[in-house]
Amino acid sequence: MEIRRRNHHIEISELDPFLAELLRQIPASANPDGVQAAEQRLFSAPSNGKQTELCAEWRMYVEPELRRLFQTATETVAADLQQLNGNEKSFANRTLRIPSKHADAWLSALNQARLVIAAKNNFTENELNDHFRSPIGSRRDLSLFQVNFYGFLQEFILRELES
Amino acid sequence: MTTAEPTVEQETRSEDELDVPWQVVVHNDPVNLMSYVTMVFQRVFGYPREKAERHMLEVHQKGRSILWSGMRERAELYVQQLHGYLLLATLEKTC
Questions:
Q1: Domains of chain B, residue spans
Q2: A chain contacts of residue B86, beta-carbon cutoff 8 Å
Q3: What is the ipTM of this complex?
Q4: Sign of the CA dihedral B57, B58, B64, B65?
Q5: Cβ contacts (< 8 Å) between B92 and chain A: which residues?
Q6: Residues near A113 by Cβ (< 8 Å), separated by ≥ 6?
Q7: Beta-bridge partner residues of A10
């Protein structure tokens, strides 16, 4: 896989089918699917519990706005990912071009996905910091790889935003 | 002819609550990237990179950092923005 900036987009080329599939899973992975821990992480409380009135107002007025914000980001990413559709059975490498103006949506969707996966799997800090863990032997290992791969993409997009 | 009484909006928060300075606190989260958290602090509070990094490291090492303190309404707005970036942020009353 190669990732570079080209004019007004970020290009991820030489994407093998496995990594292309992981990218395709970003929008679905960002969905808490009703898992309470994931839901609570995406929509965390605005106070340490003493401000019950504030928390109630927050749920009523702020949470719906946050939901819309997060959904808009994942929809933008899902639309960009349609470039990877069409040849699911082909083992040829793919190229994905992310318009620079979609960088914030990608950062948000990748972050949503990482947080939801981590919450669903209840990863410990040690697991999340173990970047040399391999090979992938279980569904949990794959989820951890997914979190790290999405983190790598986030780092690259952040560097591009800074430059 | 009768004159309608003007409607008086009831203030639901006490004056004390509004006057006390409030703090915007960001809590540690092992998933969010350090570079991402720094960028969010720069964007939301307009902090220069060095100051944003100092706060990010404080969150990382001490578990929390007070990013801002002042009036409640503005503090709420900051917490909302931080939640929009998926950071763990809370609003706390200054003791």
A1: 17-93
A2: 42, 108, 111-112, 115
A3: 0.91
A4: negative
A5: 47-48
A6: A25, A26, A27, A29, A30, A146, A150
A7: A5, A98
pLDDT tens digit sequence for A104-134: 999 999 999 999 999 999 998 888 887 676 6
For chain A, give the number of residues: 163
* Number of domains, chain A: 1
The CA dihedral of B71, B75, B77, B78, to the nearest 10 degrees, is 140
- What's the CA gap between A14 and A8, in Å, rounded? 19
* DSSP code, position B9: P
Q: Which of B39, B86, B91 sits opposite A54 (nearest CB)?
A: B91
- Domain extent for A150: 2-162
Residue A161 pLDDT = 85
Read off the pTM.
0.88
Q: How confident is the model at residue B43 (pLDDT cuts 50, 70, 90)?
A: very high
Q: Are A91 and A21 in contact (CB under 8 A)?
A: no
Substitution target from B43, B86, B92 for chain A, most A beta carbons within 10 A: B86
A27 in Cβ contact with A78 (< 8 Å): yes
What distance lies between CA B73 and its chain's CA centroid?
A: 9
CATH number of B17-93: 3.30.1390.10
Cβ of B84 and A66 within 8 Å? Answer: yes
- Note if the bond before A135 is cis, omega within 30 degrees: yes
